[in-house]
Amino acid sequence: MLEASAFLRAEKKRLTPQRSLLLGIIRQHGHLDADEIYRLARRENPRLSLSTVYRTLNLLKELGLVEELHLGEEHHHYEAKAEEHHHLVCLSCGKVIECRLTEDLRELGRRHGFTMVSAQVELAGYCADCRKQGENDP
Amino acid sequence: MLEASAFLRAEKKRLTPQRSLLLGIIRQHGHLDADEIYRLARRENPRLSLSTVYRTLNLLKELGLVEELHLGEEHHHYEAKAEEHHHLVCLSCGKVIECRLTEDLRELGRRHGFTMVSAQVELAGYCADCRKQGENDP
DNA sequence: CCTCTAATTGCAAATGGTTCGCAATAGCGT
DNA sequence: ACGCTATTGCGAACCATTTGCAATTAGAGG
């Protein structure tokens, strides 16, 4: 939470209780959507507004502390930005496996004369568990 | 257009002029958004409604003829589904390079015990042209 | 061909996620 | 502590997409 205040000061932004609460919540969970964040946050601060959630999410995104995901759903998901990583989504149980493919992807880009800066990757398929449990999946 | 009618009949769906028009348009362009499709289609049929565009897009998506893309923007993009391919988006000129990474990605998934069925991939970076033209990009 | 009926369309209104305007509140540099 | 300015909460606005409904039409069967 404290390093965040450095990021904020650097841009003349303020560290409000709402912001630390939200960042804290995002950091202790993976890929939440705005409404889930809102509901979790309200348990701590019932007066918090949804606009503040969205405004904070956008701020944290600009600061590079949080990443916005497009997991195929209509609405966005957010998660604390650690090292870049990618998602393997199981079509059977819905589990989202995180992994680092950055170097491999950079190499794939290079083969097309492309210099990769960042990657959004979502592989859909079946995780080891589901593959074991039943061969009845499509 | 004609093979489409087979897909449709198979589900008791009808091949209307609106549907062939829309499928035609999607097939002759790459990654259009709903509104672009709407505007192009209206040049042929000015009475066409936006709802029909969306309804048709959803239908074609279910039939597997069209694919919905989430290119980081707020709204969706659509394109005719040919062979699976992936996108390299240039941060400088906005060009979208298409390429096939399927087998490579399957292999990356395998390393995590994951059986990949399909992949959505968007690498952001710089294309060869932009890299050449100026080293003034971020 | 003509008829009948269920599928489809266009329209307008509803929806759901996200943003914005504004007056009230509250960080934080001094 | 003070004051300036960023931030909040609220409600309304916004935009992409969906839906209800009455009018239209594709296409199977006669």
Describe this structure in words.
2 copies of one chain form a homodimer. The first copy, chain A, has 138 residues and is of the alpha+beta class. Chain A has 2 domains: 2-80, Arc Repressor Mutant, subunit A; 86-133, Dna Ligase, domain 1, CATH 3.30.1490. Chain A is 42% helix and 22% strand. Chain A has 6 helices and 6 strands. The mean pLDDT of chain A is 87. Chains A and B meet through helix 5 and strand 6 of A and helix 5 and strand 6 of B. Strand 6 of chain A pairs antiparallel with strand 6 of chain B. Chain A binds a DNA duplex (30 and 30 nucleotides) through residues 9, 12-16, 18-19, 33-35, 47-52, 54-55, 58, 74-76.
Oligomer: homodimer
Mean pLDDT figure of chain A = 87
Going across the biggest sheet of chain A, name each strand in turn: 1-3-2
Q: In total, how many beta strands of chain A?
A: 6
Helix % of chain A is 40-55%
The CATH class of the largest domain in chain A turns out to be: Mainly Alpha
Q: Detail the poorly predicted runs of chain A.
A: none
**Total domain count of chain A:** 2
* Strand residue content of chain A: 15-25%
Computed Rg of chain A: 18 Å
CATH fold assignment of the largest domain in chain A: Arc Repressor Mutant, subunit A
Main structural class of chain A: alpha+beta
Largest interface: A-B, 30 and 30 residues
Overall body shape of chain A: flat
CATH superfamily of the largest domain in chain A: Winged helix-like DNA-binding domain superfamily/Winged helix DNA-binding domain
